[in-house]
What does this fold into?
Amino acid sequence: MSLESNVPSENAGGGKPRLSFDRSREAIARNGQWLAGGVSSNFRLNISPTPLVIESGNGARLTDIDGNSLIDYYLGMGPMILGHKPPALVEAVTAQIQKGILYAGTTEIEAEAARLVCEMVPSAERMRFACSGSEAIQAALRIARAHTGRERVVKFEGHYHGWFDNVLWSVAPPADWLASHNDPAPFAGSQGQLASAAEAISVLPWNDLAALEARLAKGDIAAVIMEPAMCNAGAIHPAPGYLEGVREACSRTGTILIFDEVITGFRLAPGGAQELFGVTPDLSTFGKAIANGFPVAAVVGRADLLELCAGRVLHGGTYNAQPIAMAATAATLRQLTPALYAGIAENGTRLMEGLKRIFADAGVTASIVGFPQVFHIGLGLDAPAKSYRDLLKLNRTGYVALANELVHRGVRVLERGAWFMSCEHGPEVVDETLEITEAAVGALKEQGAL
It folds into this structure.
């Protein structure tokens, strides 16, 4: 039986008719004539009840082609910290597009955007722009290998650093893979991935300082790359002293420490997780919230490392620092004030606490952890996860049912459990979300789905 068929015809506690997504479903099927799977990213596939076709966005809400208004906690999978269609961003982009689109040359707005990044991010003595987080990661790894003369990189189970062959390892290894190996080999994330790409990767469990120190002691690691807070899966905090210990171990062994802040950057704080936790890496990568939805990413770090790109390390890209995207970047960064973060923190905390109450009152085991700007609901967890392996205990089927129920009631959330907040998610939006979630949880409890 499909998730969509096993639901009541009206919302509990409100009597509002359930939303229909027939036009989206038909459009995705029709688009499959031209787009593989009807979409342009695998992360938009296999969403219940169907991948949505969006018409517009404004503030904290989206409107799809069925005419449904949805409170949006996807936020473009993280970038839209200012919400949809913020006036200052629209104005800046409109002004720039009147001047031109692409010059194959440097612009003043590019330098202004770079200055803002370097002033905000603790590790950013120099930087380069790119178009995607995946590209910025590749630049960081190349710089680290050039500087150290070493090839091997350490990454961690459950951490995602883009879809390229050399980093798409052990992002979501199955339980049997981990259970059957004391020291599991890297687990490929895709068919067609070069097996030889794993030869330069060592995968470790995160939040285990002793394991990392032992591996770095061999002296052959060019870089350690990690999400400083594990927000792609689980919104897991670093253990007390862990980041500091990693920093010291990397410095002691001549290993480059890379923070992948594509999600956490400009979201957890103006200077990212490194500002929040007070630990400065050698290199960092940023994306998503840096330009509130425009295709912009960056690799930043120590001056001596980034200056390698001005010499023997090749970093290129036709669309790097495209002027319209740079106007969006500068406009976004100027909006990231202490007052904005305080507002998101207040409303995000209130939403998290309200959700905890709803699950507790319903007798549903759930761990709600993370940060007010991005948090994670872990159904089936009775304590916060400390590593990827703890996330294997999640009730994923139950959460997909919840996400499906919520979208039929007007709240759109990622099926992997992450909720992103923007400055547009104010008290009224939070109240409406909590009311809808309480009704959704109650309905699923009655059906035995939770």
